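1st attempt posting a full record on here, be nice pls
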Amino acid sequence: MATKKLKIRDLTLRDGQQSLFATRLKQSDIDPLLPLYKDAGFYIMEVWGGAVPDSVMRYLDESPWVRLRTISKAIGGKSLLSALSRGRNLFGYVPYPDSVLEGFYKEAIANGLNVMRIFDALNDIDNVKESIRLINELGGIADAAVCYTVDPKEEAPAKKGFLASLFGKKEKAPEKIFTDEYFVQKAVEMERLGAKIITLKDMAGLVNPLRAASIIGKLKAAVKVPVDFHTHCTPGYGLASSLMAILNGVDILDTNIWFFGEGSAAPAIELVYIFCQKLGVEVDVNMEKVGEIRDRLESIRRNLADVDLNKDHFPRHFNPLTDKLPADIDALFDSAIAAAKAGNEEVLLDACHAIEDYFGFPKPNLLVKEAEVPGGMYSNMVAQLKALNSSDLLEDAMKLIPKVRRDAGLVPLVTPTSQIVGAQAVNLAIDRKKGNPDYTNTSNQFISLVKGEYGHTPAPIDPAFRKKITGDATERPYDVSKYKKPENPTVDDLSGVKLASNNEEYLLLELLPNVANKFLRNRRAEEFAANQPKVEAPAEVTAEVKADEPITGEVFRAPMGGRIIEIDVKAGDKVKKGQKMLVYEAMKMENDLEAERDLTVKRVFVTVDEVVGTDAPLIEFE
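the predicted structure (as tokens):
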């Protein structure tokens, strides 16, 4: 009988660093790893998409296209390279028309991408079908992902009134939406549309072991294409559920390498390898090369301490090929396997948690488990609130996430809905701290989500709530006819060159206009300086300096802390109701701040790139 092989998709260079280190891995850190990766023989390497195109420009001032080309050239086809696409939202945070999707997919495949994992944050099939078609037509491999989520916890019932208690009238339990059949039906439809791989995408790590066994088993029976399981360890299920997926025939498993694994990331391949050795399953990877990569990742991680949530809690060194496990730890692996086969979830989880604890990996995050959020969303909220000196809001915001999610139609929490719901939960926490009614402050993206522009939500949104948030009870989908291609402006102060010098740069402008604008301006400034080395750099143009005179006029304040990325008005400007005055970034979401009525600007208190706190004065009016 042939040995069963388990194919591995390595997430270290994309989802691993995104979940643990806020996507701050530099190209200079990646380059020395690539010759080792070439020989490691992973079936798939996830290296692009997700937050990478945004973050490498925003935080590292690097080109996402250079990253993809560099990795592709170094790997030389030895592993398939994959990226994560948010379907209609691509790698951004808003819906895009088909022309933008096609442009990015075509350029990505031309630059070495093989597999595009496509998902929609709402599991709306209409939002992924065009991406599946385009990827197949352009010569790529369409990997369609079904986003796992759970029905919200039932809120504690209100105290029964006298008559209800007298006659024993019972409240009807809400109908379950996210059943096994819900996920299987989505997968079958995606395969019918042309998906070549089906992924169960458990971005929050909420698939408990018995549920993993059930869904993976049913997926294997329902579809003919390979099935991939993607999960995270944040709430404590990841390792145990991955073992269950292996036992139930999963074809591909997503893992990270040791120092980039576990915690809010996917399971460590080294622990999966031990389980597979005991099960007689061949992990189709060169584990010696994995060990060489692991050795280098430790120092890379130490250099990421500023964004590492567990910088003082490193896992102990371990090489599964050479290190002998203590007898009691080895027994834990055997106990976990026996419990998994017997369907004893409690014993299985206890054994896996003890294994992870022995090696020094983080304990289950109960706050994340209760709020049902992805690890990347959690780490991003922590980092953003810390930068804004608002860490005291974290616990309240986390507890409010389930409420916001219910109000918004039970959306799964994965980018961009995780950012939208997370930012709105922070807004809600701020509202309550101030004593304001809920949803006094709402982001542009939350309004669009409730309006219907992101697609059909799994559960219908209460029309009364939609009217409260958007001003109209009618669901209104995204209108592609309203999309306007961004201009490619001439940079007058840098010899009059175009901001985007080629198609791939213009695509970045289409995807993330504010982030790409700054990134591309830096490139043109470098070219200008190289051609005119003796010319002094022009002084940075900033907004008006804050004046010491007291504020006497009406003030526009920051509804939530963030970073100013664009200022469109100056002193003396007359602004009309609805006119955009500035753009600021909060929780990785770009928000346009508009005039609430016709006004005249007296002073602007902020400058571009300045970080402001909640309620900070931004603009004073006459």
